[in-house]
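Can you make up a polypeptide sequence alongside its tokenized fold?
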Amino acid sequence: MKVAYVFLFFTPLLTSVAHSQDQRFYQQDTYGNIRYEQPGFRMQKDGRIIESDKYGNKQYGKQQYQIKGEKIYQLDHIGRIDYGKPKYSTEKSGRIIEVDKCGNKQFHKPQYQIKNGKAVPVDPYGNYMPNKPSYIVQ
């Protein structure tokens, strides 16, 4: 699974956090070690999410995302929201689920649950999946 796709599920955690600079996100392994050698992400003040390399340089040529309300949208190559692509929705319980272009929740796709400031992978029944990586912000 692409890191960019998985990362989307973590971004709603910061939608209510005021920050003065870009927030950086990193992948964690199953033991809790931060994987700095993996691509990370940066969330700008305006809610735009851009992949970054291991040195922190923004990768503008990669897929970008925009947080708007409680939804996360994919952007096209110009930076406009692409409503024809899947988006991601947050539930009140903290679960994040992919939604297709018709508004149907895709329960068979990867899901994440926000717990203790981390995004942890869960199965369609809400059970924690320890063999999948989690995500943390620094």
Summary: Residues 3-137 form one domain. The mean pLDDT is 81. The chain is about 5% helix and 35% strand.
